[in-house]
Amino acid sequence: MSTGNNIRKYRELKNFTKEELALKARIGIQTLEAYESDEREPKLDTILKISTVLDIPASDLLENKEKKEMDSELKEPH
């Protein structure tokens, strides 16, 4: 699932309207709509804001591919 689909899925599961989530996360409604329709990709700080409002781990919003890449990067010795 894409990041935008994940945002929409969790927003709906938590019974937030687009307007409520946008207001609480301090982003524009049109910006949120662009994220949910995959027209734009949110920056990490925006993902953190949205996940805080939805009370879920930020990693739950990331696209599955991005999560796998992040996990593999974290496991690599530095």
TrEMBL record:
Q: What is the protein named?
A: Helix-turn-helix
The protein's matches in SMART domains, at most eight in alphabetical order, are given as: HTH_XRE
Q: Which domain of life is it from?
A: Bacteria
Location of the HTH cro/C1-type domain: 7-61
Organism, by scientific name, is Halobacillus karajensis
State one molecular function term (GO).
DNA binding
Record Pfam families: HTH_3 (PF01381)
The cellular component terms of Gene Ontology attached to this UniProt record, alphabetical and capped at eight, are: cytosol
- Keywords assigned by UniProt? DNA-binding
